[in-house]
Amino acid sequence: MIEIAERTVSVERSGAMLVATVDHPPVNALSRPVRAGLIDAVDRFEADADAGALVIICAGRTFMAGADLRELDGPPREPRLGELIDRLDRCAKPVIAAMHGTALGGGLEVALACSHRIALASARLGLPEVRLGLLPGSGGIVRLPRLVGVEHALTMICEGGQIDAAEALALGLLDEVTTGDLRAAAIAFGERIVRAGAPVRPTSALPVPAFDAGLLAAKRTELARKYRGQTAPRLAVDLIEMAATTPFAEAARKEYLACRELLASPQSRALRHLFAAERAVAKIDGVGADVVPRPVRKVAVVGPGTMGRGIAQCFLTIGLPVVLVGRRRESLDEAVAAIERSLAARVQRGSMTPAERNRAIALLRPALDHADLADVDLVIEAVTEDLDVKKMVCARLEAALGEHAIIATNTSFLDIEALAASLARPANFAGMHFFNPANAMRLVENARAAATAPDVLATLADLARRLGKLPVSVGAGEGFVANRMLAKRTREALFLIEEGATPHEVDRVLVDFGFPLGPFALADLAGLDVVAATRAARLAAMTAREQSCDIADRLVAAGRLGRKTGAGYYRYGEDGKPRPDAAVDEMLAAHRAARGIAQRVIGDQEILERCLLAMINEAARILDEGVAARPGDIDVIWTSGLGWPRHLGGPMFWADETGLVNVLESLRTYSHVVGADHFGPAALIERLVAEGRGFCR
User: Fold this and answer.
1) N or C: which end of the chain has fewer CB within 10 A?
2) The predicted structure's pLDDT at residue 361
3) 3 pLDDT tier (thresholds 50, 70, 90)
């Protein structure tokens, strides 16, 4: 054990100080060698009568940034983190945690168990375990409230956010903040406290400050709304309440047991799966780490509609000049005014300063033609979803742009191979599908055509990350991943109301599952005229039953366009809330009668299974065709862009948890109910079941 410890934790003397340096790249995770090394360092410190204080510091770019997640799926490995924490807590001499970069999770728990804490001004601290469906299990819950109070501990633990060093100092979490050499500052701090001779008082010996009892009830209500369906945030409140009234040792034991129980929970497995999947999407097949992104210093957005405005705003807020191209001065003026209103709203919310807003607006230049695009590095077309129109726009752009400029289409459904084929330089072309509203939604699908150059893909991924987005690389194909699967859910939702369910029943079942909106409320929000136009564009590719299921067309013909007209699948009052409408029930009854469909009662289970399994079956085909590289990519797309509840891990993970054998059996059942052309099992599902495997494991 000592040999392992010496490879990750070195100990050296500086006068009366010992300095233990953790060097375990890339983020000094608290794996077994680090834990063993730090325990050994404390042993050496306590055995050294001449050592007045111990400084724990880390090499590299960060302090200990949490546990080694690879260890979470197996039995606990000795020495456990709790053993190290207890060892630090019992130390009779001062131990100083010197933090830089990020001190997160177990790393912060180590610091909380030290008698003193200092940090660089740039450091950030947090307990993000709740984002993995877990909670601090080695003293974070029982120690943090003793230093910062219950109110601030609730926020940090229940929501998993980070605070900067200045706030940590103000709250009492830090004893000192420095802008200079951290090691030198920590040693000087240790020398001062040794000279002062004050007795060591561990955090565990501090009382929990008094707090308003109503605070806990208010937090429970807030978390139930904000993290609907998630266990860990609400359990954190219970544990913090327990820690405030329970002797420390007993409270620490209960904290640990609760964390171990969460570790085995389906929610934690789901959230840990997503954590890994979101990191895996950074790897783009065929694009090595040595591929250098092209520089992007100026961009253009063609199409000043809702989507184009949102995309333009994304670039403006990171300081990139944007040329917004439209066909009419009126539409451009309207777009500029809308962008200015959106930026003003950000100032009101406090997410942007007035100076930042002014700089962003100054970077925007509206234009009526392509004459001034020669120095643009990237142009995103966001014109109407019509293949011929997009071909014409892309050809004109290519003629106006420099040889190395990138053209990205924001299409959500059209064939990008057909668009690429119309260009003289198809290597410079790709899809960059933002989700609406583009300035708020995190997900971007970067779609590659066969001829797309690797450095173009690298550029789009890098740029999306600069925008604060989560880019996922997808292949060419109608609808890519998100909308191709969404179309299958929409199909089943329509078939269900055609057979006898109501829009409200379908929406209720999916909202109860965890989606923020059901398919019919979502359609009303998007606008049924938009839905009908998309349907018309895809009509030739639909099955006969899909073609005859013209419910959206009937609503549009009746002037019911959704929220914008106060009526769609629902009727909307002055309060904007959707209400079931008897007129829609009558229209559906007439639709059934005209097509000879007998109305029947449809249970919640059938509604849920048909909507979800239609998506999962299509996802299996997407994987088989290589449109998505990994099952986890699909889960990231749906949890980041389309509202699949994160604590259920995404459709691929959910299918595995449900059991692919059960999924296959249900698909076969619904093949008889709905038709084999809609529910015939994908070949990949049949292969995986035959091999005893799942999508993600």
Assistant:
1) C
2) 96
3) very low
pLDDT in tens, 83-102: 999 999 999 999 999 999 99
Give start and end residues of each alpha helix (H) in 599-645.
604-625, 631-641
Whether domain 299-477 has CATH 3.40.50.720: yes
d(CA 525, CA 563): 6
Mean pLDDT for the chain overall: 94
Contact predicate 683/649, CB 8 Å: no
Rounded to whole angstroms, the Cα distance separating 305 from 338 reads 10
The CA distance from 596 to 614, in Å, is 24
Q: Determine the Cα–Cα distance for residues 404 and 674; give it in Å rounded to an integer.
A: 50
Classify the C-alpha dihedral 270-274-276-277 as positive or negative.
Answer: positive
Among 190, 224, 200, which Cα is nearest to 93's? 200
Q: Give the model's pLDDT for residue 68.
A: 81
pLDDT tops 90 at residue 485: yes
Percentage of the chain beyond pLDDT 70 is 99
Contact indicator for 419, 390 with CB cutoff of 8 Å: yes
What residue type is assigned to position 408 of the chain?
A: A
| Rounded Cα–Cα distance for residues 674 and 666 (Å) | 12
Instruction: Say if residue 1's pLDDT is above 50.
Output: no
Active site residues: 67, 106, 109, 129
Of the candidates 367, 366, 302, 320, which has an alpha carbon nearest to the alpha carbon of residue 340? 366
For residue 409, the cross-strand partners are: 381, 431
CATH topology identical between 2-264 and 611-691: no
Pairing of strands 443-448, 429-434: antiparallel
Single out the residue of 78, 77, 142 nearest to residue 109, CA to CA: 142
Q: Hey, what CATH topology would domain 501-599 get?
A: N-(1-d-carboxylethyl)-l-norvaline Dehydrogenase; domain 2 (1.10.1040)
The alpha carbon torsion through 126, 132, 134, 138 (nearest 10 deg) reads -40
- Main-chain phi, psi angles of 376, to 5 degrees: -80, 135
Does this model's pTM top 0.70?
Answer: yes
Cα separation of 633 and 445, whole Å? 10
CB 430 within 8 A of CB 452: yes
Report pLDDT digits (tens) over 32-44. 999 999 999 999 9
Q: Which residue do the tokens 């509840």 mark?
A: 645
Question: What is the C-alpha to C-alpha distance for residues 43 and 93, in angstroms, rounded to an integer?
Answer: 12
Enter the tokens of residue 655. 């299918």
pLDDT digit string, tens, across residues 260-294: 999 999 999 999 999 999 999 999 998 998 999 99
Q: How far apart are CA 135 and CA 150, in angstroms?
A: 16
Please state, for a pLDDT cut of 90, what percent of the chain lies above it: 91
Is residue 426 within 8 Å of 253, Cβ to Cβ? no
| pLDDT value at residue 2 | 36
Non-local CB neighbours of 550 within 8 Å, separated by 6+ positions:
591
Please state which architecture CATH assigns to domain 611-691: Orthogonal Bundle (1.10)
Q: Quote the CA–CA distance of 157 and 144 in Å, as a whole number.
A: 9
Tens-digit pLDDT profile for residues 516-572: 999 999 999 999 998 998 898 888 889 999 999 999 999 999 999 999 999 999 999
Average pLDDT over every residue of 149-177? 96
| Residues constituting the chain | 697
Element (DSSP H or E) covering residue 491: helix 482-499
Integer angstrom CA distances of residue 656 from 352, 531, 613, 669, 683: 42, 32, 12, 19, 16
Reported CATH class of domain 2-264: alpha beta
Within a 10 A sphere around the Cβ of 438, how many other Cβ atoms? 24
Phi-psi region of 477 (alpha: psi -120 to 50; beta: other; left: phi over 0): left
Cα torsion angle, 457, 459, 462, 466, sign: negative
